[in-house]
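Predict fold of 4-hydroxy-tetrahydrodipicolinate reductase; 266 aa.
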Amino acid sequence: MIKTIVIGPRGKMGRLITQIAAASEELVVVAGVAPKGRDYIGQDLGQVASLGYDLGVPVVDDLTEVIEICDVIIDFSTKEMGLDVLQLAKKYKKALVCGTTGFTSAEKKLFRNAGEEIPLLYAANTSKLVNVMNQLLQTAAAVIGNETDIEIVEMHDRWKKDAPSGTAKEMGELIAAELGKTLSEVATYGREGVGEREPGTIGFHSVRMGDTPSSHTVLFSGLGERLEITHHSTDWRGFAKGACDCAVFLAKQPSGYYGVADILNK
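Predicted 3D structure, encoded as C-alpha cells:
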C-alpha cells in the first residue's frame, strides 16, 4: 500500500481526495495536514474529511511531524502552503502531487526544478478527461491553429481566486507551443473598446458564478465554420480521482517532473 498524506483535508478537494484514497486498494492515508490555527487540528482525519467514520490517523498542522512515514504527498491547498510543502518534500525526498494553481512562472519553475531531486507531478487539472481534451487541442492547433481565431472561455465558482484558471492557461500554453509561440506572446485577456481582433492571438475569458465546478471551452473559428472543444465537470470528484491515480503512478517513478499526460501515455 502506498502511504499517502493529504494536504488541506477540509477543503473541497482535500475532502474528496481523502474519501477516494481511503477507499482505494492501492493507497492508505496516513495523515492529513491543515493550516495552523484550524479548530479541527488533532481530530481524526476521517471525521474532518466528512467520511462519517474514523480512519485512525490524525490531522496535524506541521508536515514535519508526519512526513517521514509517507511515500507520497497530495497537495491541493493554497499557493503559499504549496510552496512550503514543496520545500519539505525536497528536503525529505518524498514524491509530491501538486494540483494547486495560481503560481507565477518563476514559482512553477521551482516545481520543475524539484523534479531533478524527487518524483514530482504538477497538474493544473488532474482530470483524465481534461487531459484527453488537451491532446485534442494540440492536434487541432497543429492542423488549423494558424488559420483560425482561437478563444478560450472558462467558468468556475464564485470563490475561485485566480483568473484565468490554471487549466485555461495550460491549454493556452499547449496551443501556443504548437504554433511555435509562447503564451505571453499571443495571450489577450478580456476585450473592450473599439477595434478589430488582433490576428494570431489567443483570447481568454473568465466567468465566475454560483457553484460552477469547472467548465472550459476552446473555440477555433474560421470563416463560415467553428470548432468547439469543451469539457464540463458537474462536481470535483473527477479531479480527486485523477489526483489519486497520479499518486499511485508517481509513487512508482524515479525522480523527474511528470504530468497527467505521462499517465495517459504509459
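The longest helix spans residues 128-144.
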